Amino acid sequence: MTSVLERLAGKTPAFSVEFFPPRDAADEQVLWRAIRELEALDPAFVSITYGAGGSGRDRTIRATGRVAQETTLVPMAHLTAVDHSVAELRNVIGWYAAVGVRNILALRGDPPGDPNGEWTAHPQGLNYAEELVRLCRELGDFCVGVAAFPYGHPRSADLDTDTEHLVRKLRAGADFAIAQLFFEADDFLRLRDRVVARGCDAALLPGLMPLTTPRTLAKTVELSGAPVPDSVARALDPFTGDAAGFRRAGVELVTRMGERLLAEGVPGLHFYTLNRSKATREVVADLGLAPARTTA
Ligand code: FAD
């Protein structure tokens, strides 16, 4: 099974897509329609998020295994350390290896219930993503990614400390990082500059979500931890109450941001799809990232 790094090196520029595990049979159909529609565009890899706990985790494991076994796609499994003992983490990693998943996004995860609540490590578990990177490396020939935060992780004291910790994770054996959502290309490029200034040249992928609805805009505020900047408000405010106009302007905004990032030499664009493919397909086609035969 090919690694994410091999795919990024072989396909320049590349794009990749992220899904979350289905909650029920109807969700599963929606997810698989999106996977099949995107498969035709040959993304560099497909990632599936790791549930916050219990059955969500089993659903992640099943969905990632299905991608590995039933599609031509290169899967990447997310894995979080929260609420797992090291023995459990070893089991999950072993299971991923057994079904042919070679790529893991190693994360700490948020405390269950209130994501901003107090972080408590499992008594036999890990404290930071950095330790999970080491565990993955110890257990097999995995290609390992980590999370990066253009505005800093909410628990970090400041941007310098945040960058220091990101670089530590990368130096612990991670091959690349994927950035949390952000609003303007410069926000990502400043993160890249901070990492490069520390002598680290690992691949950093920007994470983008097509702004198709006010809900996706609200999600971007929530996940990025940043308020909507004036540039974005100016582009989208005129379309309050006009769903089609909002979608057109939002998709255009994200497309132009992707264009700028590609011009700045990013190795690929990672799309948060919310298990829908249409807007991602539009952006990817507009940027010339899909094979010509499938974009007509
Ligand atoms: P860490 O890198 O461990 O960082 C956590 C905090 O500790 C940061 O403030 C950091 O600066 C600090 N820190 C790190 N190392 C040290 C150290 N050595 N000493 C002191 N402080 C340190 N969540 C899910 O539940 N499932 C998912 O599938 C998922 N996928 C994600 C994908 C992406 C691309 C991103 C960006 C986030 C994702 N998340 C997911 C959310 C993520 O789990 C949370 O944001 C979590 O709070 C941080 O995880 P981390 O891996 O960055 O943690």
Main sheet overview: 9 strands, parallel
SS-derived structural category: alpha/beta
Q: Could you list the spans in which at least 5 consecutive residues all have pLDDT below 50? A: none
The ordered string of helix (H) and strand (E) elements is HEHEHEHEHEHEHEEHHHEHH
Shape: globular
What's the gyration radius in Å? Answer: 18 Å
- Estimate the strand proportion: 5-15%
User: Please, how many helices?
Assistant: 12
Class in CATH? Alpha Beta
Bound molecules: flavin-adenine dinucleotide
CATH level 3 topology: TIM Barrel
**What's the N-to-C terminus distance?**
30 Å
Mean pLDDT: 94
Q: List the strand order in the largest sheet.
A: 7-6-5-4-3-2-1-9-8
Brief overview:
This protein has 296 residues and is α/β, with parallel strands linked by helices. It is built from 12 helices and 9 strands. The protein has one domain: TIM Barrel (Alpha-Beta Barrel).
Could you please describe the fold and organization of this structure?
- The chain has 296 residues and is α/β, with parallel strands linked by helices.
- The protein has one domain (4-295): TIM Barrel (Alpha-Beta Barrel), CATH 3.20.20.
- Helices cover 47% and strands 14% of the residues.
- It has twelve helices and nine strands.
- The chain has a nine-stranded parallel β-sheet with strand order 7-6-5-4-3-2-1-9-8, with helices on both faces.
- Helix 5 packs parallel to helix 6 and helix 10 packs across helix 11 (278-286).
- The longest helix has 21 residues, at 243-263.
- 41% of the residues are buried.
- Bound molecules: flavin-adenine dinucleotide.
- Residues 49-50, 52, 78, 80, 105, 107-110, 128-130, 147, 153, 155-156, 162, 165, 168-169, 178, 180, 207 line the site of flavin-adenine dinucleotide (FAD).
